[in-house]
Amino acid sequence: MSASGRDRRHFLKATGMGLALPMLESTAVDKPGKEQARSPVQRFVAIGTFLGFHTPSWFPGKTGRHYEMSHVLEPIERHRDQFTLLSGLDHRAPNGHRNWRNFLTGSGNPQISLDQLIANEVGNRTRFASLQLTCGGANGSGQISFTREGVPLPMIGRPSVVFASLFSSDSDKARMRYVLESGQSVLDLVLDEAKALERRVSRPDQRKLGEFFSSVRDVEKKIQKRREWLDRPSPKVDYVLPKFDPVAPDLSLECETMMYDLMALALETDSTRVITLLVPGAGQVFTIDGEKLIAGYHGLSHHGNDPTKIADFNRIGREHVTRFGVFLDHLRERKDAQGQSLLESAIVLYSSGMGDANTHNNSNLPVLVAGGGFQHGRYHAIDREKRTSSTPLFGDLFISFLQQMGIEREQFANASRNMNEFLL
What we know:
Low-confidence stretches: 1-5, 8-25, 27-37
Radius of gyration: 22 Å
Strand content: 5-15%
CATH architecture: 3-Layer(aba) Sandwich
Distance between the termini: 57 Å
Number of helices: 12
Shape: globular
CATH class: Alpha Beta
Order of helices and strands: HEHEHEHHHHHEEEHHEEEHH
Helix content: 25-40%
CATH superfamily: Alkaline Phosphatase, subunit A
């Protein structure tokens, strides 16, 4: 690699912005702006569990307001008036772990994910347009956030890195300022290299380069925004991190707890208004209440209807839900700058891109919607087998989210209505 290539890669890694020339067939070898009138709902959080849940143990047996809380959801009984449950929703997308990535993008090849579409509208008002988080290295399990070109965004898996980003010290800022101020010439060099190729490549490659130029402009905007936010003091919090990051796979539940704490702090300090969290699932063998489970997490998800394995799979599910419940506690208790509960001012989606990990089926997803000023307290069962023009898709729910945030949109991927009748 040339010296200029090494400099480019080092700079982009240091600023946390991935950028590289696209693979070409021809070469085979916002700054904080003026506040505008807007909806009181200005925050969006999406949490996706990679292996989903045992849905017969997740969905209640009865619909309506007076449903009995299901086994897996019992840990959040105290919040039942703050969330809505829905079954029968999906993107009509292909099955399999690989297609989990349709979770926030809709059916087919991922393009822009819901969180990034929202971040493009509200992200200029905060230090970070969005945060993409996971627990540990995620072991390659899933991708949750995508740019408008369908490029997956990297996730932060270490709580200490999230904390340092949100609440950086003066010395951290000085280092970042040095990196940012030295970076513009590097971007110019990248752009020059790409433009030199443009006249010599095929038409498909010219389209790819067009997407690349768009990515460069996006990075330039992010650099400008970071420079401006460096002049603002970082929020001060009294949260104390443990002495080490619990990033080993078997400690991912502990890491999950810390990520929820940091997510609540990020929203409370208005450091960002858009967050995604991928809860990973691999072969880790959890110890719960002092008892080691009989198999790894992924193995339990392929339970083959064995009651013993289902019971342990549900134990993990309840642990996830318990931690999510504490996150809802934080959002209910804390206020935004307008004195409104964070839960009221944030739409929180808790779900999965996997409906049944046992069979790798991505239909009938477990869906919970909390906060966001919606009317909650009910369980709605959608009959997805009808397949009429009025049968809602998961993307129709996304349209309701966007409209609730004052973002006018009437289509998302293969969805073209909304689900307001279930939420308003």
